[in-house]
Design goal:
This protein is α+β, with helices and mostly antiparallel strands. The protein has one domain: H-NOX domain. The protein contains nine helices and eight strands. The strands form two sheets. The chain has a five-stranded antiparallel beta sheet. A hairpin with an 8-residue loop joins β7 and β8. α2 packs across α4. The radius of gyration is 16 Å and the shape is globular.
Length: 202
């Protein structure tokens, strides 16, 4: 740990734990955004019929096998959207699910005042509502308005589309607490089922 840095949220589980399921609400919200941007036909060409049928006919609030989530996001990756568009879609997903999976953050923002540091506190509970298993998230304070967020043990993070979209979802969540959030991937620090983000805000 570099001097001056402080662990705000430690990893909830040991390194090496890997998530096995993803909440259908996240995947269905992702699919809804593809439809709203008229991308569903391109997506349907990239995903196998069995996976498409399982997702299109799915219901919110249930656990899906991680393998199904991986096939969905890999098909999204193959559409070939620019990173900024992937982030924008993730931001839309974050806004859409604020009343469900992000309800924890919404209540915290309303009850405790607007500061992203308070928004980081329930991040483990939020992870456990969206993903089943995995090492989980860790938050390290880098400065008064800057943090490093590490997400470990999530196979979806090996899909570039998911990492970009998750940046947008994370931005939407933390902007409940401030005017503007910037989330950028720190490359080369973590490998395999993991990502590290530098988060700052105004």
């Amino acid at each position: 740990m570099v001097e001056g840095q402080k662990v705000i949220v430690p990893f909830p589980r040991g390194r090496g734990e890997v998530a096995t399921h993803v909440r259908s609400t996240l995947v269905l919200s992702s699919l809804q955004s593809l439809k709203s941007h008229e991308l569903f036909d391109r997506y349907a060409e990239k995903v196998d019929p069995e996976t498409r049928e399982s997702i299109v006919t799915g219901v919110a609030g249930v656990w899906l096998p991680m393998s199904l989530g991986l096939r969905h996001y890999r098909a999204c990756e193959e559409i070939g959207l620019a990173p900024r568009d992937q982030v924008a879609i993730g931001y839309e997903v974050g806004g859409r699910i604020q009343g469900t999976m992000l309800g924890i953050l919404v209540r915290t923002a309303k009850n405790m005042g607007a500061t992203p540091w308070l928004g980081f506190e329930p991040i483990v509970r939020l992870w456990d509502r969206v993903f089943q298993g995995g090492t989980g998230p860790s938050v390290i304070q880098l400065g008064p308005k800057e943090a490093r967020v590490e997400l470990v043990g999530l196979p979806l993070l090996d899909v570039p589309y998911f990492r970009q979209a998750f940046r947008g979802t994370f931005m939407a969540a933390l902007e409940l607490f401030c005017a503007k959030v910037y989330v950028n991937e720190i490359r080369g620090t973590l490998k395999g089922n993991a990502v590290s983000f530098r988060v700052s805000w105004v």
